[in-house]
Amino acid sequence: MTSQSIQQLIEAFQRLPGVGPKTAERYAFYLVRTGNDEITGILDALNKVRASIVQCTQCFNFAEVSPCEICSSPKRDKTIVCVVSHSADVVALEKTGSFNGVYHILGGTLNAIEGVRPEHLKIKELAARARQGIAKELIIALNADMEGETTSLYLVKLLQPLGIRLTRLARGLPMGSDIQYADELTLANALQDRKTLSEG
Ligand SMILES: [Zn+2]
After folding, report:
1. Are 156 and 120 in contact (CB under 8 A)?
2. What number of helices (H) and strands (E) belong to the chain?
3. Average pLDDT for residues 149-165, to the nearest whole number?
């Protein structure tokens, strides 16, 4: 019988994406076994994130300041906006070193089964951004899965009348693949060879 506090820790880990019961148990017992130093290190990191991370009011990425470093950089091209679902996708695209525009993080993708509707994502904010007239091109860079496709279609329908150029990543990415796990070269190529959805 596991003690109540360890059980609580296992359950907390299990709520993390991609962590099943076995892994959650392994994490919990690892921490219990290694003791205070390891636990303090993790607590410090968590507290720091809680105290210092804000959401950028322009791109909705998580950052230490708002507007974030990317949005406020004079070196970034504000006329090209790459639309992604999560912050982790920004990390992946930045690693390619081949994108010099700015981002817009939707905060997820449309998903009828899980009840994710347009109002749950930063879609209204994206349309408002497109209407400002600074952005000339929106690159829709969503995962090549059903939710990504559904969201792309929705965005094209919504944004097409605004007369802005809409593109999408080239299909170098295998179907069902996550942008955040794609290798840098594949992702750089997908950006380079992006396809036009609407000339704007
Ligand atoms: Zn930003």
Report:
1. no
2. 8, 7
3. 94
Predicted TM-score (pTM) of this structure: 0.82
State the distance from the centre of ligand 1 to the C-alpha of 138, rounded, in angstroms: 15
| CA distance linking residue 103 with residue 86, whole number of Å | 10
Q: Residue range 67-80: average pLDDT?
A: 97
Give the model's pLDDT for residue 35: 82
* Mean pLDDT, rounded, of the chain: 92
Q: Please tell me the distance between residue 4's alpha carbon and the centre of ligand 1 in angstroms.
A: 41
Contact 92, 180 (CB under 8 A): yes
Q: How far apart are CA 45 and CA 73, in angstroms?
A: 27
Top-level CATH class of 69-198?
alpha beta
Residues of the chain with CATH 1.10.8.420: 4-52
Domain with residues 4-52, CATH architecture:
Orthogonal Bundle (1.10)
